[in-house]
Design a protein that fits this description.
Elements lengths: L2 H4 L11 H7 L1 H4 L11 H24 L1
């Protein structure tokens, strides 16, 4: 691949910043409610972002290859 052929797909790299933005401001999600299956919001929100980050990384990899 040449850099010219990858240039139009460079915008997809911005998706990798979404998890950082979602987890950057701790006071926004550092709370106990709402609970999900007995887990406080803080824990299931962070675990949700583990899964979403893997999905976003997969999408970026698929588009860039």
């Amino acid at each position: 691949y040449t850099s010219a052929s990858m240039a139009p797909r460079r915008w997809i790299l911005w998706l990798l910043l979404v998890p950082y933005a979602a987890l950057l401001w701790l006071p926004w999600y550092a709370r106990a409610t709402p609970e999900l299956w007995g887990f406080p919001f803080f824990y299931w929100y962070m675990f949700l972002w583990v899964v979403l980050t893997a999905v976003l990384t997969g999408i970026v990899h698929w588009v860039r290859r």
